[in-house]
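Record pair follows.
FIRST:
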Amino acid sequence: MSSSVRIKPKTAIQKSKTSSPLPCSPEPAAKPQPKPSDKLNPKTIDPFGDHSRAPSAFAAIYAKGGIPCRLMHGAVKHRLQWECLPETLPFDPLLITLAEGLRETRHPYTFVSKEGFKELLLVEDAAEKAVPLLPRLVPVLKAALAHSDDEVFERGLDALVQLSAVVGSSLNGHLKLLLTNLSRRLMDKKFKEKITVALQKLEQHGGQATVAIIKAKIPTYCSVNS
């Protein structure tokens, strides 16, 4: 009997140790849930997640605060808040950097690049600032239009139309570099209407000379004036 009494405390102690959570338990104590803003902060993105890879140039610049705006998220839609008035910002290299960000496929980079590019082109003297950058800007847009991701292509197409509305006929000398990619996507039924509308807007913004340039690459194009 005395032996049995001595064994029980030992057994209880072992049971207690076994039931106690270990430091490397697969079920650690619950961590506080991240704030909504954390999900939009590139510094909180898990580097070992599904998108594990070296950050793109745009992502690296954004993470270091090199893009002078931040994403403000609401219940309905997101918007950008600029650190200073866009009118006061130099387009070189910001506009080109935002154009490079159009090739991003992860949030918040997709939104920041698309909306930032659009809003920067809305400033009063956008044409004066953007035209000198066309030789560097067009190849970047071409890369977006050549991207295999459909959403990247659409962002590139929207950006091209926005740019043409600002620089007008100054874009004509660079159109040949862009039309090849549009011609290829034109064969895709889901993009045919969107690309046709974009080409018509390029004509409206670029003038009559634009028609001949477009037809040289896309013979089936019909002018808005025909």
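SECOND:
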Amino acid sequence: VCLTCCSRDVMVKIDQICHKNSVKFFTGDVFGYHGYMFADLGEHEFVEEKTKVTKVSPGVEDGPDTKKAKLDSSETTMVKKRVVFCQLKEALAVDWSGEKAKAALKRTAPDYFLLQ
């Protein structure tokens, strides 16, 4: 479900319905130079390709780069990952006065507070 130009109450209500029924939910809007996008994908599983890191065997090379790990681009492994997304209601209800929030505050764009 994709929403735009909706009130906060409508977005929260539809996200709750989508989350309950395992339906992916996206919402966003733009106000001049400022905008937002939110995604609730519920439990999302995906596969990520990782390049294998191999170390150079000792004595093969001389110099300062001998100890550095090198990427072997010919060998890759597939790693299955799982992410659990929060609901819109939870994202909007963050308590910014706590200790954990102080660290997150530095990474949060000022636009978040404008949109609140």
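COMMENT: The two ends are 22 Å apart (CA to CA).
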